[in-house]
Amino acid sequence: MEIKQSKRLFSLAKDLMPGGVNSPVRAFQSVGGTPRFIHHAKAQYLYDEDGNSYIDYIGSWGPMILGHNPDFVLDAVRDQLQYGLSYGAATALEVDMAKLISEMVPCVEMIRMVNSGTEAVMSAVRAARGFTSRDKIVKFEGCYHGHADAMLVKAGSGVMTAGIPDSSGVPQGCTADTLSAVYNDLDSVQRLFEEYPQDIACVIVEPVAANMGVVLPKEGFLQGLRQICDKYGALLIFDEVITGFRLQSDGAIGYFGIKPDLVTYGKIIGGGMPVGAYGGRGDIMRMVAPLGSVYQAGTLSGNPVAMRAGITQLRYLKEHPEVYTQVELLSDRLRDGLKEIVHKYNAPCTVNGIGSLSCLYFTSEPVTDYTSAKTSDVERFSSYFHYMLDNGNYFGPSQFEAVFVSNAHTLKDIDKTLSDAGDYFALTFGQNKANVI
Ligand SMILES: *Cc1c(COP(=O)(O)O)cnc(C)c1O
Description:
Elements: H1 4-16, E1 38-42, E2 45-48, E3 53-56, H2 71-81, H3 92-104, E4 110-114, H4 117-132, E5 136-140, H5 157-161, H6 172-175, E6 178-181, H7 186-195, E7 200-205, H8 221-232, E8 235-239, H9 251-256, E9 262-265, E10 276-280, H10 282-285, H11 304-319, H12 322-344, E11 350-354, E12 357-361, H13 370-373, H14 378-390, E13 393-394, E14 403-404, H15 411-429
Parallel strand pairs: 3-13, 5-6, 5-7, 7-8, 8-9
Antiparallel strand pairs: 1-2, 2-3, 4-10, 9-10, 11-12, 12-14
Helix pairs in contact: 2-11, 3-11, 7-8, 12-15
Bound molecules: pyridoxal-5'-phosphate.
Residues 116-118, 121, 144-146, 206, 211, 239, 241-242, 266, 276 line the site of pyridoxal-5'-phosphate.
């Protein structure tokens, strides 16, 4: 595969931007090699500057559940452009967006739009602290909640593969009130509450952890968090930046039937534009300025073009539940196919997944938390990643990223990917095959 242009651009970019990128994982640091510079995307495909095409299993890290640039979303955005890019004033679109989200997810009684998932989490945590008049928060090892200071503790994917468990530049004071618990381990949460019964404002969790690969909540885990929070008067925050409007139209809240007090959104709700949101119980959201004492603002928040893109995609999802059946069917095919290959070659691998989210871990251990995820052979992943990339399959460049399947993918795409994966396993684990009984 010719990647002359990507190489040229990467070398220019490295002199101009840290690592040549605007978000670390894009730099391919954990897998090595040259990141592909993308020229355009359509449906399930990405096209790089050298004209190579790839089946895209990232989908802009989540937003593109319908594939890239569905015509009806582009048409809506084009229509919106004629009215201007930003006013810094209230619009009907923001009312439409809030109404749509509260219809799709009824426990979101009030919502505030922001510009990224990071902002959504930072603001939701502030609201929880303001509402409870408590300072401490509980998060889980391996869950990523954006790059706000207080959240950069054992924070999953980008941080995990870069080998920096924390970040420099974050004063100790900023994380002093951030307690970490073990995903899927209610006892670890209970112990923190026993130590600080009156001090914990909230527990924040990815209801499906999708930043240490894909780790499913064990039966009763989310329910247990709900009970512990209720017992101690703490709030439960679901970070649904990935799972929201992805697991199903009402996200993890509907899928697992557990109501958090607050929820954070990002990725899908912007349809590819930079959007985030936090919302939930009305009594908590009424704490937010200008009604209450929790200050939070944003010059470009609720941007009309971003709202139009987001509303258009969300409304489609609301009206087309078959999208969820389809992405699950495709992902089941992918997961089943990978499991077959792993079994055939007796390879030390584990396949996790739910709905449109999947992960092939290069470890034979079941992956249920951060510690087990980290037993993965990341060098083996890198070699798999590059083999797949060179054959036109674009996965997240890290063992700890989810594989995202969109509604635009076809069974043919999945089968091509499986065939390439089969070839990789034959090359790499071929000698194991004889050992399978
Ligand atoms: C991506 C992500 C964030 C951060 O969102 P940004 O838009 O990148 O700031 C927060 N939480 C979760 C679960 C995420 O996956």
